[in-house]
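// run 5 | inverse folding | seed 20
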């Protein structure tokens, strides 16, 4: 059987973290999954000007607005996670610089949760 994707592992681990009431892991995984969902969103075309007689620009018919999301590869997911880790690390440095070590530590902890998913599926999976 093939290994689960990083996204699948993130979603499964979120459920475990919620059950364990691990707030740092929950925050890190929710943020990561939101970033992945946003990256998989399809751009809305501005050229769609049609509509019905009731609402300008509205599409008519059941399913007429359904569009498949972009499929993200594990490499895409890793790039997004790396970006979030870098962003949180920079922010943690700024918070530490102004004396907010509590926030800095939380951001570093969340970055650490995400970093665990950059490794292979069994060697680096986060344990909530």
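// decoded
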């Amino acid at each position: 059987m093939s290994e689960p994707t990083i996204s699948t592992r993130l979603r499964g681990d979120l459920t475990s973290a919620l059950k364990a009431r691990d707030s740092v892991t929950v925050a890190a995984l929710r943020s990561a999954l939101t970033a992945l969902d946003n990256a998989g969103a399809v751009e809305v075309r501005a050229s769609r000007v049609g509509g019905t007689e009731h609402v300008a620009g509205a599409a008519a018919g059941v399913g007429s607005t359904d569009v498949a999301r972009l499929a993200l590869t594990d490499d895409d997911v890793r790039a997004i996670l790396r970006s979030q880790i870098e962003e949180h690390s920079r922010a943690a440095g700024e918070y530490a610089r102004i004396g907010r070590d509590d926030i800095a530590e939380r951001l570093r902890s969340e970055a650490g949760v995400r970093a665990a998913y950059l490794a292979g599926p069994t060697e680096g999976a986060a344990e909530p």
